[in-house]
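Supplementary Note 3. Input sequence used for the single-chain structure prediction.
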Amino acid sequence: MDCAELTLFQEHAKQSDALENVIMNKVKYICPVCKGALTTSPRGYICSQCSWTYEVVERVTLFTQEDVPYKDEFTKPNLRVSLPLELLYRHLHFYHWNEKCFFEDNVRNGDILLDLGCGGGKELFRRRGAYCIGVDLSLKALVNAATVYHQVARCDMLSLPFEDNTFDCVISSHVLGHIAREKKDTLLKEIFRILKKGGRAINVIETDSLNPFIKEAKRYPTCYQKYFIEREGHYGLELPSDIIKHFERNGFTLISCKKGNAGRVPLWFFVLYFDNEFLEDFPVPVQKKVCFAKQLWMNRYFRVLMGFFQGIYQDTWGQWRTELDYSIGISTVHYK
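The predicted structure, written as discrete structure tokens, is reproduced below.
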């Protein structure tokens, strides 16, 4: 055997070992089309019932041919920072750490968990969960997530390739706002189906809102559609109270709900959403806030201070004194 043949043989061996590792998964896949059992094939899986075949590429099982391109920042794994910094951010209520704290408080050690719309994966879930699976529509993100999670798959979230009563918790972060309203019941039914009895749906959800910030933006429909809906891909926004009712209609019971960006929104939101070609159409007070926020945002020390101030405000006054539908986003835990 010459060098070229040896190299080719080694590559085939590596691919075979990788494929075997995927096929020996602790959580078995089922066919998302007919829910039939899957058997192994030379390249991945084949459904014994409807004969659909599913390829495995770089440890990612492909249950759909759709591949959604993401910005690079959304394909990278979310890794742990130093423990002292984590403690500082948590105890001083740093705004950008709120979501991480929410998941830390609600994901239990030993959970078998599914991360819906996992992106590049979160080290926190792997650290706390006994067995972690991520699903998404971006192959690039899933290849990175495969270095963090035990299993990853590219699939349509409206037809998940898992058996009933499989997971202790199903998690999503900024996903439900991307699901059209008419499709939300289908997704929630799928989540309910794959959760064990007593299992938890843990979600950070983008929402519509009665907040004055959103009301001001809606006065300019073209700007609102372009920068609040289309740019973010938020085609399924609903008021927080309506989202909770959606879960309840599909059999879930609410355990906890934390408001996000309730009352006074972060100052930098004015830059993110109003600093564009429509700025001159907004009232002078809004224009001044945009100018002021830009000046502060250019200074990294002020950025950190704003993060601490906003985090403390949201965890106190925002939670205690603001009505639910005046929040822009909620973090909820429901159980089956």
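Residues 1-23 have pLDDT under 50 and may be disordered. Residues 3-23 form the longest helix (21 residues).
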